[in-house]
Amino acid sequence: MSYTPAEDSFLLVKQIKERARGKSVLDMGTGWGILAETAIKAGASSVLAADINEAHVRYCQAKGIPAIQSDMFSNIQERFDLIVFNPPYLPEDELEDAETRQLVSGGKQGYEILIRFLKEAKEHVSKRGEILFVFSSLTSKKKIDETLEKLHYKFECLEQEEHFYETLYVYCCR
Fold first, then answer.
1. Fewer CB within 10 A of the end CB, N or C, for the chain?
2. CATH assignment of 7-173?
3. CB of 120 within 8 A of CB of 133?
4. For the ranges 7-21, 26-40, 99-113, which has the lowest average pLDDT?
5. CA–CA separation, 80 vs 44, rounded Å?
6. Cα separations (Å) of 137 from 5, 7, 99, 168?
7. Cα–Cα distance measured from residue 95 to residue 92, given in angstroms and rounded to the nearest whole number
């Protein structure tokens, strides 16, 4: 089972098209590779897709996208000019099966995986690099903002989009 690209992915696609040219790009949690593929088409100098799921890595590699299996940054040593992440960000729902939960749940509160990513990403973004990520209003925006401040990121909300039951936010941080 894999997360099918949806509104959150497409919001990031738009930002990647504007920012990837000539940059080294890491697509963390790549899934189907749509963000990595967008970076390649936008003229990135290099692209690496990473995912914890071996099937996703093989899928990306079969499409010609350089990809590695990694639990966050566990198998990544280099720094990147642009790191993109469409994390699972919804609060845990006990009614979901384990496989679905792994795809959509960011932890008990919904933000735990994103916070782990933000802590680890600091060591992998270049000096003038950027990190793009998306999350939902169903996750605590206040907690994300507080975490970014605590980690000394400069950040801005590039876009927000209203949906039936949530607002999606695209953040850029340095």
1. N
2. 3.40.50.150
3. no
4. 99-113
5. 11
6. 19, 14, 23, 6
7. 9
71 burial (CB, 10 Å; 0-12 / 13-18 / 19+) is exposed
| Residue boundaries of the structural domains of the chain | 7-173
**Integer Cα distance of 36 and 30 in angstroms:** 7
Q: Are 88 and 102 in contact (CB under 8 A)?
A: yes
CA atoms within 13 A on the CB side of 49: 28
Residue, of 125 and 111, whose pLDDT is higher: 125
Q: How far is 58 from 155, CA to CA, in rounded Å?
A: 33
Instruction: Tell me the pLDDT tens digit for each residue of 14-35.
Output: 999 999 999 999 999 999 999 9
Give CA–CA dist 119/12, Å, rounded.
Answer: 20
